[in-house]
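Chapter review: from sequence to fold.
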Amino acid sequence: MSYHYSTITRTLTVFGAKMTHVFKNTGAGEIEELVTDAKFKEASWRA
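The token string follows.
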């Protein structure tokens, strides 16, 4: 799982195996928490 954070738009994009998660208006200090949240969503997703 990888991610990209834009400091200009304050947008965090997390690239997962099943989906891409986009978090808008986030601070740099929230990155670790939001990546963990995305991992949880990936693990609990049923396709």
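Two observations follow directly from the output. The chain has a mean pLDDT of 94. The chain has one helix and three strands.
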